[in-house]
Specification:
Oligomer: heterotetramer
Number of domains of chain D: 2
CATH class of the largest domain in chain D: Alpha Beta
CATH architecture of the largest domain in chain D: 3-Layer(aba) Sandwich
Helix content of chain B: 40-55%
Helix content of chain D: 40-55%
Distance between the termini of chain D: 36 Å
Chains: A mainly alpha, B alpha/beta, C alpha/beta, D alpha/beta
Order of helices and strands of chain B: EHEHEHEHHH
Number of helices of chain D: 14
CATH architecture of chain B: 3-Layer(aba) Sandwich
Strand content of chain D: 5-15%
Shape of chain B: globular
Radius of gyration of chain B: 16 Å
Chain lengths: 194, 165, 676, 314
């Protein structure tokens, strides 16, 4: 992990905080965090995160962009929304986590690629077929990241297959070109906006 | 020197909140454009719609009405009455051919000097974008055209209310 | 409009430099010269610019001109009227001019301090002066209002703040009516065991005051009563009090207690004992209750439910039980009113993740106070809900329902200190290990931080983090049977799960559930949260915007006992000042209806928040009571007949000020009108 | 729903007549993107959901409710609709993207509701009770809501984001004995099974531990992801922690179907990884041993395309 020295001339706390806020839809209220730890305490995967969400927010304020985007925290967010409903300051924590993931992918900053690749694989399937496809997803994902774990998962996959709960081939939606046109336009718009 | 349009704006302030916010802006030396001239009322509820029409008719390009935040009125809830009047007034001036945006309602507590200054800044820009209102000019034109006073431009109760100058 | 022949008034205009405060940005000399030249038609006969108008020399300048030049109106262009209006008005009065014929316009706060372009600032200052001149022409000579004050006072709420206020007033020899909703005075403080930071016993310091109030020759105590109607205005309110039937003849009752001994009906006491203990259907809330007479609670009394029993009646040695008693309405006259109606405790059930109401051994702060209290349901034993087991591990959670936008976004002020108190009491009485979970430790005020030090010394473990949840769902066998407090220890940066036996929730303070209705009844305003709003948050914390109504204690916002007592005393002092003077002087900012123009449409009647407008059915006209009117002017703006005028803020004054502000060419404007 | 959550679909179709419904599938729906798409890019993720909403609005014949069975779909559709209503810029951008596909969606046009919400609040517990012919008496059910249906729930349809009871009430209406399940809204592990399995196993274990502590016979879920994680990964979690939980996990619609007297096979029972037979034997239901054979597909009538190759980074 690269460590950023601060304070130095490259230390630009305001910039990073402002960019995260700007990239999050609606009001993120990130600037309102009082560092109480409700999020970190509520988080089901908080134990396994490099930094608790609260720490991440402090780090964003401190301008520690590299560390934040390299942290596994946003990727370990399970979107359970406990933090969101409990936060006394109504900070939109899951939305901020999505923003950080976007930024980490865009800047190629994340350290452990398992989670980002899973998301990307999922996205590829959606973009190419319009629907997700468990068999392909799991296989492709495990081939890259946990070749040894594939055997266990394969057993489960076999189970899903024999129980009529999974297809061997992905199913494609009918008007895929329409979906792709929409997504491409959305990507253009997003690029313009950024 | 500078041919930028400088609007003239009349601001009505509440004695308990926004007038004090204006005082606070002064004490804190927060700068805002000199286009606004303030009038103190005891409450935004005192704001008679004819005051606004009068200001526009006398040459103001915009009117800003300020009062306490909802729920914080020093006279219990008179600011809600101001709110209702402003909504109706905006519609009325719209019917008279004036952009409703020339009348703006802003809530500012006695602590919000910065906010009041910002709101004034924004409003000046908004009015600048709309350009001069020139209601007196239009009234004069109507007068010259021999119709006497143009009743469509002059609300009835204002004609009743002849104010000695 | 400015072509009138002969100006009626002789106006003097004084432009202040305020050292360099104004003069640095505004060309004050230019403003003065301009005013004399251009406003001459309006009646300006003399103008001066002066270094410091508010200095005695400046004031003498005005006085001299009034006398020598025969000025009939004065305009001072200087600082904000909130600062020096009174100064210049007084100067005018000294010179024999009615003070309300002087107008102070602000060219400092509103011009020199907020603008930097000297030319634009000077032009704006001229416009502001012109506005003031046009306005002052229409000022009328006014007299301040003088209102006589009735010497009796109503105090609503018999908690510590109300008791303090009542005693202060009564001790100085004035009549007080003290109204309390519950059967006894004492309020929340009577429920507490110890008081921080000194750990005095609450009852030991409160009971003597309660007894004093109960027996005071100048205090009429109305317990089990409520104010149902307030009429009138400062100096002379007429208040109607409803006294609920006690079903006890208080002239006969000796408070011996046989009735509640014999009463067969046990009821969970969820007011005084916070639901942890029982009382009877005939009861006094606690042993030291003032007055000592019990009440019969008809909702639970067997006789009221099914017509049988009457055990209390049979055993009463003085025949004081009166089942046929009815509610009474008492009317009193008072000059001032002090509201000290207190707070409600935040209902911890609203935070489901803390499990209160679902998990037996989660207690609220009030429940815990009762557990600790030697006179409480457990005789002061700190035990778990089973009533026997002493806890070995106790968690105290701060900020429950406070500092949280999901519930109340303010700090409840007292919870940090009371949480420390709980930690101390648990340690002292059970030796249990105590964890305090806090967001920020707020121990301001005298001896409070010292108490924090003491609790630290005692070995309480402090965890900085707002608790995420309290659960009985164990993850590991080691957690089985415990309550688990899950929290991020923000200083360690780790998620922790801490198993405990007992959890105490330091619930916050909330406005009374009926605060808004009470505020409306007394004609005062409350914030969006429901706390009553003081006249000035710093300089006038116990007065309200409504003359004659004062507030004290937690009704104004969360506060601790010393602050509540101070406010009770302060409110009493404010009232005493008025009683001693015998009258008050009010600013003559008032609305008046000209009966000749009133059409009797009654539009104004419903608009007045102070019910100051009365309608005369016979004459079909409305009239404004000047003692009730606060001068907001809403009715003036609404009257379709223009029959209402507002003194100090009349239509003529405001319309003319508008004209003045826009009177001359618009010098700041570089593009001029062209005819359409 | 046609795939890994097939029993959910089967059981829903089975009970729809009982509760007087006629359900229509959104034609050519696409994936909502779960929590993954929005992790990669923001606007396309909203556009993805915008398309579903637009299709639903087009297809709506006087009907304006989209029923979601899956919590992620529910959340994503509802959130897209809500944010489009609140954020004018987002609304404009999503619609500009949709226009590229000839679609348009006015936020607020369709109501997005979860199956459970509609069954309890629209159909009503009384109507459900009347249909019960085989009460689930004696079956100890742990109601499991998971996260994204009850949270953030801005319209408060489920009563409480922390401790809802509507599934409890539904199960009671079916005659079941309902466990006061303290972890009812905790996380099932979500996508962590793919990202860091041990993390997910721990989350799954916590739920199983609590269900076991509370002596539940069976856990009911209302989301395909939860069902999949708890059911299919139960064995892995057991291996990881050397435990031996055998907690059957079914959809609430399956238990409704059983109570309404449907045949277990029709409800897709028997397709679980963890055997439901012992639990359901308590209410006298025999679960088919072998799953109904899936119709073998030939390559010819298969509309699928070959798998795309992974994009290799770096």
């Amino acid at each position: 992990m690269s460590t950023q020295q601060f304070p130095t001339e490259t230390w630009t706390p305001a910039n990073f905080l402002e960019r995260v806020i700007a990239a999050t839809p609606g009001e993120s209220r990130l600037e309102m965090c009082i560092q109480c730890g409700t999020c970190g305490g509520s988080c089901p995967s908080g134990d396994d995160m490099d930094n608790t969400p609260r720490q991440i927010f402090a780090m964003i304020r401190a301008g520690m962009e590299e560390e934040v985007l390299a942290s596994n925290t946003p990727w370990y967010c399970v979107s359970c929304y406990y933090c969101a409903i409990r936060c006394p300051q109504e900070v939109h924590i899951p939305d901020i986590m999505y923003t950080l993931k976007n930024m980490a992918i865009a800047q190629d900053r994340y350290v452990d690629s398992v989670a980002p690749d899973w998301s990307q694989t999922f996205v590829d399937y959606v973009e190419n077929y319009g629907r997700s496809f468990e068999f392909g997803l799991a296989t492709r994902h495990f081939l890259r990241h946990r070749p040894t774990g594939l055997r266990d998962t394969a057993q489960m996959g076999l189970g899903l297959l024999t129980k009529g709960r999974m297809d061997l081939m992905p199913q494609r939606i009918e008007w895929l070109s329409q979906l792709q046109a929409i997504l491409n336009r959305a990507k253009e718009l997003e690029a313009e906006g950024a | 020197m500078n041919d930028q349009f400088e609007p003239v704006i009349i601001g009505f302030t509440c004695n308990w909140c926004s007038y004090r916010a204006a005082d606070l802006a002064g004490t804190a030396r927060i700068k805002y454009p000199p286009n606004i001239r303030l009038i103190r009322l005891m409450c935004s509820g005192r704001m008679d719609p004819t005051f606004v029409l009068k200001a526009l008719a006398e040459g103001a390009d915009g009117v800003m009405i300020t009062g306490c935040h909802p729920g914080e009125c020093h006279y219990l809830d008179q600011n809600y009455k101001a709110l209702r009047r402003v909504l109706l007034l905006r519609r009325t001036i719209g019917q008279m051919g004036i952009e409703p945006g020339r009348v703006k309602l802003v809530w500012a507590s006695a602590a919000e000097g910065v906010r009041l200054a910002q709101e004034i800044g924004h409003f000046v820009e908004e009015i600048r974008d709309m350009g001069p209102l020139n209601w007196p000019g239009r009234l004069a034109a109507a007068h010259v055209n021999g119709h006497g006073r143009d009743d469509r431009l002059m609300p009835a109760d204002m004609m009743l209310e002849e104010v000695p100058a | 409009m400015n072509d009138q022949a002969e100006p009626k008034e002789r106006i003097g205009v004084y432009v202040c430099h305020c050292g360099s405060n104004i003069a640095a940005t505004v060309d004050v000399a230019d403003v003065a010269v301009w005013a004399k030249e251009r406003l001459g038609d309006e009646g300006v006969v003399i103008t001066h610019d002066y270094k410091f108008m508010c200095s005695s020399l400046g004031q003498e300048l005005i006085e001299r001109d009034i006398k020598e030049e025969g000025l009939t109106r004065v305009v001072v262009a200087a600082c904000s009227p909130h600062l020096h209006e009174k100064t210049f008005r007084t100067a005018c009065a000294r010179a024999g001019l009615n003070p309300y014929l002087c107008e102070l316009v602000s060219i400092r706060e509103q011009v020199s301090w907020v603008h930097s372009d000297r030319q634009a600032a000077t032009e704006k200052a001229k416009a502001v002066v012109a506005g003031g001149v046009e306005r002052v022409i229409h000022n009328e000579p006014l007299e301040p209002l003088h209102i006589p004050i009735h010497p009796a006072t109503l105090v609503v709420g018999g908690g510590i703040a109300g008791i303090q206020a009542a005693l202060e007033l009564a001790d100085s020899g004035h009549q007080v009516y003290l109204v309390e909703r519950e059967p006894s005075i004492g309020g929340h403080m009577a429920q507490f065991d110890k008081t921080f930071p000194t750990m005095d016993c609450a009852a030991c310091i409160l009971t003597p005051k309660m007894v004093d109030a109960g027996g005071h020759p100048h205090i009429d105590l109305f317990t089990w009563s409520e104010v149902v109607r307030v009429d009138g205005f400062v100096g002379n309110f007429t208040v109607t009090i409803r006294q609920k039937p006690r079903y006890i003849d208080t002239d006969l009752c000796t408070g011996c207690g046989i009735c509640w001994e014999k009463c067969p009906k046990r009821v969970i006491d969820d007011v005084y004992e916070a639901g942890l203990g029982y009382r009877k259907a005939v009861y006094t809330p606690f042993a030291q209750a003032v007055p000592k007479y019990p009440v019969i609670d008809p909702e639970n009394c067997t006789y009221f439910i099914n017509g049988k029993c009457r055990a209390c009646e049979k055993f009463c040695p003085t025949d004081a039980i009166k089942f046929d008693q009815e509610e009474e309405f008492i009317t009193v006259q008072v000059g001032n009113i002090i509201l000290a109606t207190g707070f409600d405790l935040f209902d911890a059930r609203r935070v489901p993740q803390y499990g209160y109401g679902r998990l037996a051994n989660v207690f609220t702060s009030l429940e815990f106070e009762r557990l600790c209290n030697a006179a409480g349901p457990t005789n002061g034993q700190i035990v778990m809900r089973d009533g026997v087991t002493k806890p070995e591990l106790v968690a105290v959670i701060h900020c429950v329902g406070s500092r949280d936008r999901n519930y109340n976004n303010y700090c409840s002020v007292i919870c940090c200190m009371s949480s420390l108190k709980f930690a101390h009491l648990v340690k002292e009485r059970t030796g249990a290990r105590v964890y305090n979970f806090y967001i920020d430790m707020r121990t301001a005020f005298k001896d409070y931080d010292e108490f924090y030090q003491r609790v630290l010394e005692e070995g309480t473990i402090f965890v900085r983090g707002r608790v995420a949840e309290v659960t009985d769902a164990a993850r590991l066998p080691s957690e089985d049977g415990k309550l688990i407090v899950q929290v991020e220890d923000t200083l360690a940066g780790r998620q922790r799960r801490i198993p405990v036996d007992m959890v105490i929730l330091s619930a916050g303070l909330e406005p009374r559930h009926d605060a808004k209705a009470v505020a409306h009844q007394f004609g005062i305003s409350c914030s969006a949260n429901g706390w009553f709003i003081e006249r000035h948050p710093k300089l006038d914390p116990v007065a309200t915007m409504t003359e004659g109504i004062f507030i004290a204690g937690t009704v104004q916002g969360p506060k601790d006992i010393p602050a509540s007592v101070s406010q009770g005393a302060a409110a009493a002092a404010r009232v005493l000042g008025r009683i001693n003077k015998g009258e008050i002087e009010l600013e003559p900012v008032r609305a008046t209806i000209d009966a000749r123009h009133c059409s009797g449409c009654r539009i104004c009647n419903g608009l007045c928040p102070f019910n100051a407008i009365i309608f005369h059915e016979d004459a079909m006209v409305s009239e404004i009571n000047h003692a009730l009117c606060q001068g907001c002017g809403t009715c003036v703006a609404a009257c379709p007949a223009g029959a209402i005028s507002g003194s100090s803020f009349s239509n003529e004054q405001i319309m003319s000020q508008i004209e003045g502000l826009l009177l001359f060419d618009r010098p700041v404007r570089s593009r001029h009108f062209s005819a359409v | 729903m046609q795939r890994s959550a097939r029993p959910y679909l089967d059981s829903l179709l089975a009970i729809q007549q009982d509760i007087g419904w006629e359900l229509e599938e959104i034609q050519d729906w696409n994936c909502c993107g779960a929590t993954e798409y929005i992790s990669v890019s923001r606007l396309p993720a909203y556009a993805l959901n915008g398309r579903n909403l637009a299709l639903a609005a087009q297809q709506a014949n006087g009907v304006n409710t989209v029923l979601a069975g899956c919590s992620a779909c529910y959340l994503n559709l509802a959130k897209t609709d809500r944010y489009m209503q609140k954020d004018g810029r987002l609304n404009a951008q999503v619609n500009e993207a949709l226009a590229a596909g000839g679609l348009h969606y006015d936020p607020g046009t369709v109501k997005i509701r979860h199956l459970l919400d509609v069954i309890v609040h629209k159909v009503g517990l009384e109507a459900v009770k009347r249909k019960v012919v085989r009460p689930l008496t004696g079956l100890r059910v742990a109601p499991y809501y998971g996260c994204m249906v009850v949270r953030p729930d801005p319209e408060n349809r489920f009563g409480s984001p922390e401790y809802p009871t509507i599934l409890d009430e539904l199960m009671k209406a079916l005659g079941a004995e309902v466990v006061d399940f303290p972890v009812k809204t905790h996380c099932c592990g979500g996508h962590m099974t793919q990202i860091s399995a041990p993390v997910a196993y721990e989350l799954i274990r916590r739920l199983l531990y609590a269900a076991d502590q509370y002596q539940a016979d069976i856990m009911v879920t209302l989301c395909p992801m939860c069902q999949l994680n708890l059911d299919a990964y139960q064995d892995d979690a057991n291996k990881h922690f050397r435990t031996n939980y055998t907690m059957p996990i079914v959809y609430f619609t399956q238990l409704m179907g059983l109570a309404f007297g449907h045949d277990p096979a029709e409800l897709g029972l028997g397709r679980e990884f963890v055997n439901t037979a012992p639990a359901l034997a308590k209410i006298g239901v025999e679960v088919p041993e072998e799953p109904a054979a899936a119709r073998p597909r030939t390559r010819r009538d298969d509309p699928s395309l070959p798998m795309p190759q992974p994009l290799l980074k770096k």
